[in-house]
Amino acid sequence: MATTIMNLDDSDHHNDDHINDLDFKLTIRPMKFDEIESAVMIFSRANLNDSLNVVQSYYQSDPSGFFVAIDENEDKVIGSCASPMTTHGTRILGLYCVEKEYRNFGIGKKLFSKCLTTFNNDNFGLCAVPSKFKIYKDRAGFRQIEGRSIVIIEGKSPNIQSLRTAEKLDQKYHLIKLMADNIDYHESLIEKIIEFDKTVQLDNRSTLLRYMFAKTTTITLAVLDTSNNDSKVVGYGCIQLDPIGRSMPGPLYAIDPLIGEVLLAELIRSDGRFSSNDQLAYFTTDNSPETIRWSKELLGLQESCRCEKLFTKFIPPFNYDYLYCCHSPDFGC
């Protein structure tokens, strides 16, 4: 499987008998911005992938939630765990990884515990792969089961020609492309996207979204309804590359399946980095049947795993009716 969520080696998470027997000096401390890429690459080497742009955006919105393990002898990052504040007073655990040669020493457990104890009054969430579901639920305190799962979709040579494109939209809809080099000219559009995002997240993610839109390698598309004077956004999506070079769309929210399908098609077609790419990965939820249908019947991709959403204190509200691709495989829908 090329992508999984919250799936670190069992013995590393639960055994720290040998934490004092290390032959190097270990430091667990807050992550620096220039250490994000190292952590993302460790994550990728463990067959866990998230876009560098997405992780950087979450870091910029809440740097206090990111921690690294450092081998002081070698002066290098050897592991990480993050729990940025997302919405509704909830921190989502992700970017949880330790370099292979440093596992089985309890380093993962120390990183995981650092996140939980630093913000022990907050609600925490995560997405657990099936083999780790009972561990997180029964032993780590994630006892609130939402009843939703993240569905991992991935594959090669996607048949993007099978997706409906912008020509299929009603004439009242207008597609706009937003990139880092033109965001200064689109402040009104950005504000409308933020307002639409609130109808999905049921909370304000202005800070996070502005950081994401400003990334030079992220492309954002929005669909405007021009049938009235205020021209509201009725869907938007972003796309970027993950560390192993796959196109990774997300988030992708829309008021109906046609707009969602068109956004996915146009995001992939928006740039040669994506349209010529023979690998695609995205993340949806098990209550988004249209997205799962696109992946299998139209794109020819495969469902590789379903990861259950768990929380420690409460289940935050979310409007799943508009969700087609999740924002991040790590930090939430």
UniProtKB/TrEMBL annotation:
N-acetyltransferase domain boundaries: 26-170
Pfam families listed in its UniProt record: Acetyltransf_1
UniProt-listed InterPro entries: Acyl/Acetyltrans_Enzymes, Acyl_CoA_acyltransferase, GNAT_dom
GO molecular function, one term: acyltransferase activity, transferring groups other than amino-acyl groups
SUPFAM superfamilies in alphabetical order: Acyl-CoA N-acyltransferases (Nat) (SSF55729)
Protein's name according to its UniProt entry: Uncharacterized protein LOC113790581
UniProt organism field: Dermatophagoides pteronyssinus (European house dust mite)
Upper taxonomic lineage: Eukaryota, Metazoa, Ecdysozoa, Arthropoda, Chelicerata
